[in-house]
Fold:
Amino acid sequence: MTFYDDVYPFYNMRRTSVIFNGHLLTVIVCFLVSALSLLFILPGIRGKSRLFWFLRIILSLFIGAVIVALNFTDNWAEARISTNTTYKSFSSALVNADVGLHVGLYGINVTLKGNPVVQLNETIDYNEMFSWRETIEDDYKEALEKGLPNPILYIAEKFTLNSPCGLIFHYRNSGRYASATLWVAFCCWMLANILFSMPVILYAGYMMLATAAFIFISMAAFATIMQAPSCVFSIGTATFKAAYSFSFWFALATGVLCAVIGVLVVVMNWIVPEKMREAFSVGVDSFEDEDISYGATYVNSAILDDVTVSPCTTPEVIVERL
Structure:
Protein backbone atom coordinates (compact mmCIF):
# COMPACT_ATOMS: atom_id res chain seq x y z
CA MET A 1 0.00 0.00 0.00
CA THR A 2 1.34 3.44 -0.91
CA PHE A 3 0.35 7.02 -0.32
CA TYR A 4 -2.58 8.16 -2.44
CA ASP A 5 -3.75 11.75 -2.50
CA ASP A 6 -2.47 12.36 1.05
CA VAL A 7 -4.48 9.46 2.51
CA TYR A 8 -2.23 7.57 4.88
CA PRO A 9 -1.88 3.78 4.72
CA PHE A 10 -2.47 3.03 8.41
CA TYR A 11 -6.23 3.74 8.08
CA ASN A 12 -8.61 0.94 7.24
CA MET A 13 -9.54 1.05 3.57
CA ARG A 14 -12.95 -0.61 3.67
CA ARG A 15 -15.66 -0.65 6.31
CA THR A 16 -19.11 -2.15 6.56
CA SER A 17 -21.84 0.05 8.01
CA VAL A 18 -24.39 -1.17 10.53
CA ILE A 19 -27.55 -2.33 8.77
CA PHE A 20 -30.00 -2.86 11.65
CA ASN A 21 -30.20 -2.42 15.42
CA GLY A 22 -29.91 -5.83 17.09
CA HIS A 23 -32.04 -4.89 20.12
CA LEU A 24 -34.76 -3.51 17.88
CA LEU A 25 -34.75 -6.67 15.77
CA THR A 26 -35.13 -8.80 18.92
CA VAL A 27 -38.15 -6.76 20.06
CA ILE A 28 -39.85 -7.07 16.67
CA VAL A 29 -39.26 -10.83 16.45
CA CYS A 30 -40.55 -11.44 20.01
CA PHE A 31 -43.79 -9.53 19.45
CA LEU A 32 -44.34 -11.12 16.02
CA VAL A 33 -44.00 -14.59 17.55
CA SER A 34 -46.44 -13.60 20.32
CA ALA A 35 -48.92 -12.30 17.74
CA LEU A 36 -48.75 -15.48 15.66
CA SER A 37 -49.18 -17.63 18.78
CA LEU A 38 -52.26 -15.73 19.95
CA LEU A 39 -53.80 -15.73 16.46
CA PHE A 40 -53.98 -19.54 16.61
CA ILE A 41 -56.93 -19.22 19.02
CA LEU A 42 -59.04 -17.29 16.50
CA PRO A 43 -60.50 -20.39 14.75
CA GLY A 44 -62.02 -21.41 18.10
CA ILE A 45 -63.95 -18.13 18.41
CA ARG A 46 -67.35 -18.09 16.72
CA GLY A 47 -69.32 -15.31 15.09
CA LYS A 48 -68.53 -11.63 15.04
CA SER A 49 -66.40 -11.96 18.16
CA ARG A 50 -63.61 -13.37 16.01
CA LEU A 51 -63.03 -10.01 14.28
CA PHE A 52 -63.15 -8.18 17.63
CA TRP A 53 -60.56 -10.50 19.19
CA PHE A 54 -58.35 -10.21 16.11
CA LEU A 55 -58.33 -6.41 16.32
CA ARG A 56 -57.85 -6.55 20.08
CA ILE A 57 -54.78 -8.82 19.83
CA ILE A 58 -53.14 -6.93 16.98
CA LEU A 59 -53.77 -3.48 18.47
CA SER A 60 -52.60 -4.44 21.94
CA LEU A 61 -49.39 -6.09 20.74
CA PHE A 62 -48.72 -3.16 18.42
CA ILE A 63 -48.85 -0.71 21.33
CA GLY A 64 -46.63 -2.91 23.49
CA ALA A 65 -44.08 -3.42 20.70
CA VAL A 66 -43.91 0.31 19.98
CA ILE A 67 -43.35 1.21 23.64
CA VAL A 68 -40.47 -1.26 23.99
CA ALA A 69 -38.96 -0.51 20.57
CA LEU A 70 -38.86 3.24 21.24
CA ASN A 71 -36.26 2.56 23.93
CA PHE A 72 -33.81 1.25 21.33
CA THR A 73 -34.41 3.45 18.28
CA ASP A 74 -31.81 6.07 17.39
CA ASN A 75 -33.97 8.62 15.60
CA TRP A 76 -35.73 10.59 18.33
CA ALA A 77 -33.91 13.61 16.91
CA GLU A 78 -31.94 13.90 13.68
CA ALA A 79 -29.89 16.29 11.58
CA ARG A 80 -28.48 15.80 8.07
CA ILE A 81 -26.28 17.89 5.81
CA SER A 82 -24.45 17.43 2.53
CA THR A 83 -21.12 19.22 2.37
CA ASN A 84 -17.50 19.19 1.26
CA THR A 85 -15.27 18.31 4.19
CA THR A 86 -11.85 17.01 5.07
CA TYR A 87 -11.80 13.25 5.31
CA LYS A 88 -8.80 12.24 7.44
CA SER A 89 -6.54 13.92 9.93
CA PHE A 90 -3.26 15.37 8.65
CA SER A 91 -4.74 15.49 5.15
CA SER A 92 -6.12 18.37 3.12
CA ALA A 93 -8.04 16.10 0.74
CA LEU A 94 -11.74 16.96 0.55
CA VAL A 95 -14.70 14.66 -0.04
CA ASN A 96 -18.35 15.37 -0.76
CA ALA A 97 -20.48 13.42 1.70
CA ASP A 98 -23.78 13.27 3.56
CA VAL A 99 -23.29 13.61 7.31
CA GLY A 100 -26.04 12.51 9.68
CA LEU A 101 -26.56 12.80 13.44
CA HIS A 102 -29.17 10.49 14.96
CA VAL A 103 -30.03 10.88 18.64
CA GLY A 104 -31.53 8.04 20.69
CA LEU A 105 -32.24 7.52 24.38
CA TYR A 106 -28.98 5.65 25.02
CA GLY A 107 -26.57 7.37 22.65
CA ILE A 108 -25.96 8.94 19.29
CA ASN A 109 -25.43 7.42 15.87
CA VAL A 110 -23.22 9.27 13.38
CA THR A 111 -23.31 8.41 9.69
CA LEU A 112 -21.05 9.45 6.85
CA LYS A 113 -21.75 8.45 3.25
CA GLY A 114 -19.86 9.76 0.26
CA ASN A 115 -21.38 11.26 -2.88
CA PRO A 116 -20.38 9.09 -4.70
CA VAL A 117 -19.58 6.33 -2.20
CA VAL A 118 -16.13 5.61 -3.65
CA GLN A 119 -13.80 8.58 -3.32
CA LEU A 120 -10.04 8.86 -2.73
CA ASN A 121 -9.77 5.17 -3.54
CA GLU A 122 -11.96 4.32 -0.52
CA THR A 123 -15.52 3.28 0.16
CA ILE A 124 -16.94 6.06 2.33
CA ASP A 125 -19.87 4.50 4.18
CA TYR A 126 -19.66 4.78 7.98
CA ASN A 127 -22.23 4.18 10.68
CA GLU A 128 -20.83 4.62 14.18
CA MET A 129 -22.64 4.31 17.52
CA PHE A 130 -21.54 6.24 20.62
CA SER A 131 -23.30 5.17 23.81
CA TRP A 132 -23.65 7.26 26.96
CA ARG A 133 -24.86 4.53 29.33
CA GLU A 134 -21.96 5.63 31.52
CA THR A 135 -19.78 8.06 29.57
CA ILE A 136 -19.02 8.44 25.91
CA GLU A 137 -15.29 8.75 26.54
CA ASP A 138 -14.47 5.07 25.92
CA ASP A 139 -16.29 5.00 22.58
CA TYR A 140 -14.62 8.25 21.56
CA LYS A 141 -11.17 6.94 22.48
CA GLU A 142 -11.82 3.79 20.44
CA ALA A 143 -12.89 5.95 17.48
CA LEU A 144 -9.63 7.87 17.70
CA GLU A 145 -7.66 4.63 17.72
CA LYS A 146 -9.53 3.40 14.65
CA GLY A 147 -8.75 6.60 12.80
CA LEU A 148 -12.34 7.37 11.89
CA PRO A 149 -13.02 10.28 9.51
CA ASN A 150 -12.90 13.83 10.81
CA PRO A 151 -16.66 14.58 10.60
CA ILE A 152 -17.48 11.61 12.85
CA LEU A 153 -14.81 12.51 15.39
CA TYR A 154 -15.90 16.16 15.36
CA ILE A 155 -19.53 15.32 16.20
CA ALA A 156 -18.59 12.72 18.81
CA GLU A 157 -16.25 15.19 20.51
CA LYS A 158 -19.16 17.57 21.07
CA PHE A 159 -20.69 14.96 23.42
CA THR A 160 -17.61 14.24 25.51
CA LEU A 161 -17.23 15.41 29.10
CA ASN A 162 -14.44 17.80 28.16
CA SER A 163 -16.49 19.56 25.51
CA PRO A 164 -17.38 23.17 26.41
CA CYS A 165 -20.86 22.60 24.97
CA GLY A 166 -21.83 20.24 27.81
CA LEU A 167 -24.30 18.41 25.56
CA ILE A 168 -23.63 15.05 27.21
CA PHE A 169 -25.25 16.11 30.49
CA HIS A 170 -28.50 17.30 28.91
CA TYR A 171 -28.84 14.50 26.36
CA ARG A 172 -27.89 11.70 28.75
CA ASN A 173 -30.21 12.81 31.55
CA SER A 174 -33.08 13.44 29.14
CA GLY A 175 -32.62 10.00 27.59
CA ARG A 176 -32.54 8.26 30.96
CA TYR A 177 -35.73 9.90 32.23
CA ALA A 178 -37.50 9.29 28.92
CA SER A 179 -36.49 5.62 28.93
CA ALA A 180 -37.56 5.14 32.56
CA THR A 181 -41.03 6.59 31.96
CA LEU A 182 -41.41 4.47 28.81
CA TRP A 183 -40.79 1.33 30.88
CA VAL A 184 -43.42 2.51 33.36
CA ALA A 185 -45.79 2.97 30.41
CA PHE A 186 -45.02 -0.61 29.38
CA CYS A 187 -45.94 -1.84 32.88
CA CYS A 188 -49.23 0.08 32.70
CA TRP A 189 -49.90 -1.52 29.31
CA MET A 190 -49.38 -5.00 30.80
CA LEU A 191 -51.74 -4.22 33.71
CA ALA A 192 -54.35 -2.93 31.28
CA ASN A 193 -54.27 -6.21 29.34
CA ILE A 194 -54.65 -8.19 32.56
CA LEU A 195 -57.59 -6.05 33.69
CA PHE A 196 -59.28 -6.39 30.29
CA SER A 197 -59.53 -10.13 31.04
CA MET A 198 -61.23 -9.50 34.40
CA PRO A 199 -64.64 -8.03 35.30
CA VAL A 200 -63.07 -4.61 35.93
CA ILE A 201 -63.17 -3.08 32.45
CA LEU A 202 -63.34 0.44 33.87
CA TYR A 203 -59.95 0.10 35.58
CA ALA A 204 -58.48 -1.31 32.38
CA GLY A 205 -59.53 1.93 30.68
CA TYR A 206 -57.86 3.91 33.46
CA MET A 207 -54.62 1.97 32.94
CA MET A 208 -54.70 2.75 29.21
CA LEU A 209 -55.00 6.42 30.12
CA ALA A 210 -52.04 5.98 32.49
CA THR A 211 -50.08 4.37 29.64
CA ALA A 212 -50.76 7.39 27.45
CA ALA A 213 -49.81 9.76 30.28
CA PHE A 214 -46.41 8.14 30.82
CA ILE A 215 -45.68 8.15 27.08
CA PHE A 216 -46.38 11.88 27.02
CA ILE A 217 -44.14 12.35 30.09
CA SER A 218 -41.30 10.51 28.32
CA MET A 219 -41.70 12.86 25.35
CA ALA A 220 -41.60 15.86 27.65
CA ALA A 221 -38.44 14.50 29.29
CA PHE A 222 -36.72 14.08 25.94
CA ALA A 223 -37.90 17.49 24.75
CA THR A 224 -35.74 19.12 27.42
CA ILE A 225 -32.72 18.60 25.10
CA MET A 226 -34.00 21.58 23.17
CA GLN A 227 -33.26 23.65 26.28
CA ALA A 228 -29.60 22.63 26.13
CA PRO A 229 -27.04 25.38 25.46
CA SER A 230 -26.90 26.27 21.81
CA CYS A 231 -23.98 24.43 20.24
CA VAL A 232 -23.64 24.80 16.49
CA PHE A 233 -22.33 21.82 14.54
CA SER A 234 -20.17 23.14 11.71
CA ILE A 235 -18.73 20.76 9.11
CA GLY A 236 -17.06 22.28 6.11
CA THR A 237 -19.14 25.27 5.11
CA ALA A 238 -22.44 23.88 6.43
CA THR A 239 -24.01 24.02 9.89
CA PHE A 240 -26.87 21.99 11.34
CA LYS A 241 -28.93 21.43 14.48
CA ALA A 242 -30.89 18.36 15.57
CA ALA A 243 -34.70 18.42 15.35
CA TYR A 244 -37.43 15.98 16.41
CA SER A 245 -37.62 12.94 14.18
CA PHE A 246 -39.63 9.78 13.51
CA SER A 247 -39.49 8.10 16.94
CA PHE A 248 -40.62 11.25 18.73
CA TRP A 249 -43.68 11.69 16.52
CA PHE A 250 -44.37 7.94 16.59
CA ALA A 251 -44.41 8.10 20.38
CA LEU A 252 -46.89 10.98 20.17
CA ALA A 253 -49.17 8.97 17.85
CA THR A 254 -49.01 5.92 20.14
CA GLY A 255 -49.81 8.05 23.19
CA VAL A 256 -52.82 9.57 21.43
CA LEU A 257 -53.98 6.08 20.42
CA CYS A 258 -53.76 4.85 24.03
CA ALA A 259 -55.62 7.92 25.25
CA VAL A 260 -58.42 7.41 22.70
CA ILE A 261 -58.78 3.75 23.66
CA GLY A 262 -58.85 4.62 27.36
CA VAL A 263 -61.48 7.33 26.93
CA LEU A 264 -63.66 5.06 24.76
CA VAL A 265 -63.49 2.23 27.29
CA VAL A 266 -64.37 4.51 30.22
CA VAL A 267 -67.26 6.20 28.38
CA MET A 268 -68.68 2.98 26.94
CA ASN A 269 -68.43 1.25 30.32
CA TRP A 270 -70.45 4.10 31.83
CA ILE A 271 -73.11 4.08 29.08
CA VAL A 272 -73.50 0.36 28.28
CA PRO A 273 -71.63 -1.68 30.91
CA GLU A 274 -73.46 -4.92 30.01
CA LYS A 275 -72.43 -4.67 26.37
CA MET A 276 -68.83 -4.00 27.38
CA ARG A 277 -68.71 -7.08 29.63
CA GLU A 278 -70.26 -9.13 26.85
CA ALA A 279 -67.76 -7.82 24.29
CA PHE A 280 -64.80 -8.71 26.49
CA SER A 281 -66.43 -11.99 27.62
CA VAL A 282 -66.14 -11.15 31.31
CA GLY A 283 -68.57 -10.65 34.17
CA VAL A 284 -70.91 -13.51 33.19
CA ASP A 285 -71.81 -15.67 36.21
CA SER A 286 -72.00 -19.43 35.87
CA PHE A 287 -75.52 -19.67 37.32
CA GLU A 288 -77.05 -17.48 34.63
CA ASP A 289 -77.61 -20.56 32.48
CA GLU A 290 -80.16 -21.84 35.02
CA ASP A 291 -82.60 -19.08 34.04
CA ILE A 292 -82.72 -20.07 30.38
CA SER A 293 -86.33 -20.48 29.15
CA TYR A 294 -87.00 -23.34 26.78
CA GLY A 295 -90.49 -22.15 25.80
CA ALA A 296 -93.59 -24.40 25.66
CA THR A 297 -93.18 -28.13 26.45
CA TYR A 298 -95.26 -31.06 25.27
CA VAL A 299 -95.89 -34.39 26.99
CA ASN A 300 -96.35 -37.61 25.04
CA SER A 301 -99.34 -39.26 26.77
CA ALA A 302 -98.72 -42.59 25.00
CA ILE A 303 -95.48 -43.00 26.88
CA LEU A 304 -97.02 -42.05 30.23
CA ASP A 305 -99.86 -44.63 29.97
CA ASP A 306 -97.52 -47.45 30.91
CA VAL A 307 -95.99 -45.59 33.81
CA THR A 308 -97.36 -46.41 37.26
CA VAL A 309 -96.84 -44.11 40.15
CA SER A 310 -96.71 -45.70 43.58
CA PRO A 311 -98.55 -43.82 46.32
CA CYS A 312 -96.52 -42.03 48.90
CA THR A 313 -96.15 -43.84 52.16
CA THR A 314 -97.62 -41.81 54.98
CA PRO A 315 -95.84 -41.41 58.31
CA GLU A 316 -98.65 -43.37 60.10
CA VAL A 317 -98.02 -46.48 57.95
CA ILE A 318 -94.31 -46.29 58.70
CA VAL A 319 -95.03 -46.16 62.43
CA GLU A 320 -97.36 -49.23 62.24
CA ARG A 321 -94.68 -51.21 60.40
CA LEU A 322 -92.15 -50.37 63.10
Notes: The two ends are 123 Å apart (CA to CA). The chain has ten helices and seven strands.
